[in-house]
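User: Second chain of the day. Same drill as before.
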Amino acid sequence: MQDSNKMKNRRFIILAGFAALTGAVAFSTGCSGTRKGTSERFPFGQVEIQALSGSACIAPSYIAKEIGFFEQEGVDVTLVSGDFELNKLGLATGRFPIANGDFQFFPSAAQGLDIKLIAGLHQGCIQVLAPPGSEIRTAKDLAGKRIGVDEIGGSPMAVTSVLLANNGIDPQTGVTWVPFPREILPTIADDGKEVDAVALWDPWGPLAVRRGYTVLCDIGVDPLFADKYCCFIYASGKHLRENPALIKALLRAFQKASEWIAAHPEETARIVTERGYVSGGDTALISQLLISYRYHARHGHTNKLQAKSDALYFSHELKKTGFLPADLDPEQFVENLYVDVLGDEAPPERSHADATDTASPGRETEHNE
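Assistant: Same format as last time:
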């Protein structure tokens, strides 16, 4: 009798174990076929993109990650932090397949950095400011002054150099550039002891304006920059040659994110502030800034033409500053730099009919030139 009970118990254990095993297998392969393995979900594998800067203008990277556009395109993206030099090196070596940046990449490209410009992204996100009580009221007043920037050769310095060159000041010799860590730069000019003016990314610029800073240049509305892309998307030349399908997938994800932001600026602002991507915590301000960037509600041939046209414009401007060589042929430079990676491929399917391709300036600033 005992032997009979033992046999029954053993049989029960075996059957239970088999049921548990088959259940686990069913779960891992998918509940009703909806769950996929990592390799199936991410055929392009895992890549890194440098995007954790705290700036509002990196929103497409955050939204592509949070809403799932990278995953839709089959790429497992990890967002990482770093400075401009790391981003350049990462693109050149292939560590980063793609990057969000403006025309500060042009000098490196002219020197042979293995990168390509593949799309325009959005408009103005940098301001040049003088602190409260300063006698500096216009860009011309910056002659001989100390200007605080987040890094030498970075975007705010490039923008300010264009501003200076167009106001009769040599950016190489007519001012002193002083770099500071991004976390202290927004307040370093408060007392006027360290620098006389600062060039700041959003949202730090508008937040400084709320504290009484004077706007010398807001590239969202300044005639030198308005209605032109300040941020482009660059691709690693190495990845373009070896894995062009990956670059296409990432660009499609960025375009989907841009269109989603155009349709949902308030929700975007909530996501990027609550998740800690953007500094400041002011969702109303971030929403206002996102609207001012004029993200495209629909991507097409016109955007490609604008990307090349704006790249050509800034190539001419950077020649004035000394950032690009005086003997550079801007037309040939842009022809070599720009690559239409999507070609005649249809743009991402539009799922947000309420989006439009126009937006109000959305700035709380007043241009003082």
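The two ends are 101 Å apart (CA to CA).

User: Great, on to the next one.
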